[in-house]
Amino acid sequence: MRINRKRLEESMEALGRVGATAKGGLNRVALTDDDRRGRDLLVEWMREAGLSVTVDQMGNIFGRRAGSDGAAPVMMGSHADSVPTGGRYDGQLGVLCALEAIRTLNDRKAATRHPVAMAIFTNEEGARFQPAMIGSGVMSGKIPLEDAYNARDRDGVRLGDELERIGYLGSEPCIPRPLRAYLELHIEQGPILEEQHLSVGVVEGIVAISWSRLTLTGVQDHAGPTPMRIRHDALVAAAEIVRGVREIPRKIGGDMVSTVGRLDVTPNIPNAIPGRVSLSVDLRAPEEHHVTRALGFLDRLVKEAARVEGVTYELDHYWRVPRTHFDVEVVDTIEEAAKGLGYGYRRILSGAGHDAQYMATICPTGMIFVPSRDGRSHCEEEFTPMDDIEKGANTLLLAASKLAGAA
Ligand code: HGY
Ligand code: MN
Ligand code: MN
């Protein structure tokens, strides 16, 4: 049993046109009209594949293919939202490979003991609404539903209102359900598989992640007459902090990474001293205690930079996802599938967060990676060769069929 490469490629093309950028990337940010169009297309395809489709309170979309007994389903999935000017593979590839696996089971009229399901999780990217992985975060009981509904984008728009506006505020309770396993295919978003000329990554786990938001308040003033000696410039303090955040991985060691990805300046004009700056800090490491130590460094760094410049600050470490270890049996099943298919593979750790990180807290979970050209992602250059996608999708199909007890 192998997936239908041409059909998968056609689905990738069609879905990739929804929110496509001129440079071949994707701009399909969560709960926008393009996200709705993408969701509508996927729901149409899921229904055509004979799945019973439900939408839960967080707009997570589920499709279910009946099994021969009432056992807990084997679920495959990922997300369909992208970062702004992102790529056409992050998330949507996992959703389409899940659909293609189900379509292939249908082609073969394959009976499975466990039902086979697929999932499309809301706002995995955390680009518009923070934090990331919010749909699976609520479903796994880690993020309260009301907190998710009250998340606001930079224009102050509420997530709950947007779900309603695009018609995906479902009634199904967004709660943990019994699952035999959850499998997610995803692009690696790093350079390892390509460097080692391998097609499949058998993912053993995901790094620990922490997101903080910092607001620095100085004294907004005129850029001309205000003497340097009396300035309290929020952007100068922020600059010190950005440099310091970059230094944290060198101080901590290991494979820690740190990023200031967002920085907003007020009033952000040439002739006013910045009165307020808000910025994001993303810290990740394979070792949980490294993230904890890094947050201690960050606290001290911010306190000192604010003191020197005479500004005040609010620092909120608002999101933390622990280091994730995937289920041994599921990881082994994925490895056996890749080995049995004769594909070049290796075990690998994910540096990116995924819905599988939350799903791993409620059911046996594993992931399959396919290579990213030049390791690039969260950019329009994101690309994965179709040969590798086909191998990843066949590995997913085989592992899911095995776990579902295909006849
Ligand atoms: O942040 C992440 O790692 C994922 O892309 N949401
Ligand atoms: Mn993703
Ligand atoms: Mn992503």
What does this structure look like?
The strands form 3 sheets. Strands 1, 2, 3, 4, 5, 6, 14, 15 and 16 form a 9-stranded mixed beta sheet that branches. Strands 7, 9, 10, 12 and 13 form a 5-stranded antiparallel beta sheet that branches. The protein is α+β, with helices and mostly antiparallel strands and 407 residues long. Helix 3 (92-107) crosses helix 12. The longest helix has 22 residues, at 288-309. It folds into 2 domains: 5-207 and 323-404, Zn peptidases (Aminopeptidase, 3-Layer(aba) Sandwich); 208-321, Alpha-Beta Plaits. The chain has helices at 5-16, 33-48, 92-107, 134-139, 145-149, 159-165, 192-195, 234-252, 288-309, 328-340, 355-359, 386-404; strands at 52-55, 61-65, 74-79, 116-121, 181-187, 200-206, 208-217, 221-222, 257-259, 263-266, 272-273, 276-285, 312-321, 324-325, 345-350, 365-370. It contains 12 helices and 16 strands. The structure holds (2S)-amino(hydroxy)ethanoic acid and manganese (II) ion (2 copies). Residues 124-126, 132, 352-353 line the site of (2S)-amino(hydroxy)ethanoic acid.
The number of E-state strands comes to: 16
Radius of gyration, in angstroms, nearest whole number: 22 Å
Gap between N and C termini: 12 Å
State the helix count. Answer: 12
Number of domains: 2
The helix-strand sequence is HHEEEHEHHHEHEEEHEEEEHEEHEHEH
Class by alpha and beta content = alpha+beta
Ligand inventory reads: (2S)-amino(hydroxy)ethanoic acid, manganese (II) ion
The main β sheet shows up as: 9 strands, mixed
CATH architecture of the largest domain: 3-Layer(aba) Sandwich
User: What's the overall average pLDDT, rounded?
Assistant: 98
CATH topology of the largest domain: Aminopeptidase
Q: Approximately how much helix is present in the residues?
A: 25-40%
CATH class term of the largest domain:
Alpha Beta
Note the beta-strand portion. 15-25%
Low-pLDDT regions: none
